[in-house]
Design a protein that fits this description.
alpha/beta; 7 strands
Amino acid sequence: MQDFSGKVAVITGAASGIGLGCARTFARAGMKVALCDLRADALEHAVANVRALGGEAIGIPTDVSRHESVEHAAGEVVRAFGKIHVAMNNAGVVLRGLPMTDVSDNAWNWVLGVNLYGVIHGIQSFVPLIRAHGEGGHVVNTASMAGLHVGDRQTGAYSASKFAVVSLTEALEKDLAGTNIGVSVLTPAAVATDIYSNSAGLRAGLAEPNPFPETPPDIAAGLTPDQVGERVLAGIRAGQFYLITHPDTRSWVMQRHTRLMAAYDFAEAWEAEQKVQG
């Protein structure tokens, strides 16, 4: 996509953070924006924020973990704006500070329900509507650097969900090959959002607390959501699949792939030894 003026975007998890930053960026590019979020009060403020920029925006209360809620949101976007061109499956929650043995089924269901099934439901509900009008479009799924590199904050459930989003998006790109719909996966590192405190607030209604609701200092000092929005817009224009926001994380990915290549070297040596012995 090159021309965004008059096009329609739908963004989940859009009441704050990266979702709101992208909504503002898309609005500045001339797009109509549908903001979806579970938090009705925050959503109302976010819509007003986008409209204050001169953008045309609506808010749709949405629980991305429920297919029927996302399907309803898709219908509301079409009713309001007629079409969908860009779908950004962005809603996410984080749980940190627990070793994998201490993550309950309840916690797993919550994290995967939002982070993974939220993307699945967005693909199921939004992509057919993009294909229907034939004008082309783009799908952006928000993963994380945690989907390419496992850090040391004991965010195993979060990382698992984000690794899944990366592979899911790679599969979607293959499914849509040869169409006029582009696909990207966003893998940000530190972005100054309230995802930790927001996640803790959302988890307050469940039976278990979020053990570390405080925002880590490096996150607080990270990129602004609007900077990420500009990166997303540039990536869509360039037709990029992987949307990297932090070039300094290259070494993290290289370390992982160095271990993989070392495993291949070991496997080749072992295979050669077996042939000699055989």
